[in-house]
Amino acid sequence: MSEAQDDGSHKGALAMADDMHILPPHFYTDAQHHATEIHGIFEKEWLLVGRGEQLRDVGDYLSLTIAEEPVVVVRSESRQLVALSPVCRHRYMRMVAPGSGHVDGSFTCDYHLWRYRLDGRLSAAPFMDQTPGFDRSTCRLPVFAVEEWQGFVFVSLDGGSPPLAPRLAPVADKLRRYQLADMRQVAFSDEVWRCNWKVAVENGSESYHHMGVHPELVEPKIPTRGTSAGLRGDAFTSHRTPVAQEDTRQVSAARPDIGLTEEDLSEMNVFTIFPSTIILNFQDLVAWFSFLPIGVDGCRLLNGFCFSSRLVEAGLIDNDAMARFMCGVNKEDRAISELVQLGMKSTRAEPGMLSIKEVQLADFFEYVRGAVSTSGPGKVT
Ligand code: FES
Ligand SMILES: [Fe+2]
What we know:
The chain has twelve helices and 17 strands. The protein is of the alpha+beta class. It has a seven-stranded antiparallel β-sheet with strand order 1-10-9-4-3-2-5, with no helix packed on it. The chain starts with 9 loop residues before the first helix and ends in an 8-residue tail after the last helix. The chain binds FE2/S2 (inorganic) cluster and fe (ii) ion. The site of fe (ii) ion has 5 residues, from loops.
């Protein structure tokens, strides 16, 4: 695929899929293959870590682990976002625990109290002046690449991936009336799923499972029967699923006009941004999901729900209700994904075929195969 396409038909999308089989089990269970994916995918690509609004003030930070690499994203004194390695340059201690927080101007290592500015430069190192060869001025925390796109903060460990914004232009255009950069996050979840990261991404990248997994929470609002492949591009694929009109009418009637059109409100668009980010619109909600691997058979899910700042400031969004909905849906998706992971360990497991309702997964499989086939050692078959 060289450019975004939206032919609007199942037939067109199917014609594009060379192989309608899912990936073989060892892609999800084999430690050596997993190492190849880490090298070929997660050490290179742009990975979503949160929203810029979570880092509003100087010193606000997000701390997480990407493929065993500790990373801290912080709002620095120049108000730029900086992604740092929070591993002390003295004796390797990870200085900042995973999660979010705020520091006043510096990160201090609790072991021997070395201190670093928010741009990574060393500012204090007790009793180090008499160490021959130690140069305080060149000692600093390494940095990673960071890019903010539409209010979403992405990190790339090696910075070798091309800039995200041009490749996501069709996504930004499709969701332009939501004014993504100005949305407010009202619910957030950080949880661990016992399944390979791809199982979770695949589950989030199709609505074929709504009828089976979410018969009460999702299917009545976003029924499986209407789902079809949507926009596609080099950096993403997508699907779209019509939203039940009665449900949309009820939501629209209760809230002021914020500039969304009938098209925006009547259809959920789910964008799978390679490798492991999902962003979707559903009525006036925009939800984001980021799946980060924890070994071959686990992953961390970061998930946020965002609404127009106008709706949030007017007190029209029930944050607790949104958090409950998020928790309920994730619980169902997690349970089914963990059962899939168990099934993949069967000696009798072999790749099944995709239905017409999930054909966009072929794009994801093609991306994964391409990424691992050009990377270092590992089993790719
Ligand atoms: S390990 Fe950080 S100050 Fe010693
Ligand atoms: Fe689901």
